[in-house]
Design goal:
6-stranded mixed sheet, mainly beta, 2 helices, 4-stranded antiparallel sheet, Jelly Rolls, disordered N terminus, 13 strands
């Protein structure tokens, strides 16, 4: 069972510039280094847990707990840029090094050499651009992982995909009301 707690996010001040991917990465890095915050997240042995945080410049930010063996499945964050950083444990990110069309398709055949993998152990993170397709997993059989994520603009939607070999299929589009 997944659990979450919401903390009100401050909006972007009038006339303030939108945060950049580098600024989001700096925020998640600093936040993931806060041992007290990382340790305060309730961890569920069966499902991911999350806590909404105040992100910079009106961004959407989350502290997420990952039980052993859990993951997101293939997805993107639509028009949002983002960053995430591991504060405890390790997360594996599998991603595609291609920009997918923003709409109008249900099935795509991927070319060779588009797959990328990286392991982000505690103290490591990354930023990404719009339409970044990836899946994030905690491959540990015994240990929880905890990470911090930030997105700007706040997530308008998440597209979920299935993948069989080189074939990527759009399966579902989730809107904020589906996960808040």
């Amino acid at each position: 069972m997944s659990q979450h707690v919401s903390v009100r996010t401050a909006g972007r001040a009038a006339g303030a510039a939108a945060p950049t991917a580098a600024q989001l990465l700096d925020f998640v890095r600093r936040t993931a280094a806060d041992a007290e915050l990382i340790g305060s997240l309730p961890l569920d042995p069966e499902g991911r847990t999350w806590l909404r945080l105040d992100g910079p410049g009106g961004s959407e930010a989350w502290l997420i707990g990952w039980p052993p063996g859990t993951g997101t499945g293939w997805h993107d964050h639509a028009e949002s840029i983002g960053a995430f950083h591991t504060g405890r444990g390790a997360l594996k990110e599998s991603s595609l090094s291609v920009r997918l069309p923003s709409g109008g398709w249900r099935t795509l055949e991927l070319t060779e050499d588009v797959d990328r993998e990286r392991v982000l152990e505690a103290g490591r993170g990354r930023a990404f651009g719009r339409h970044h397709v990836h899946e994030v997993t905690n491959e540990s059989a015994t240990d929880h992982a905890v990470s911090v994520h930030a997105y700007y603009p706040p997530l308008p939607l998440i597209r979920r995909f299935s993948r069989t070999g080189a074939v990527l299929r759009l399966e579902q589009v989730e809107r904020p009301e589906d996960w808040q």
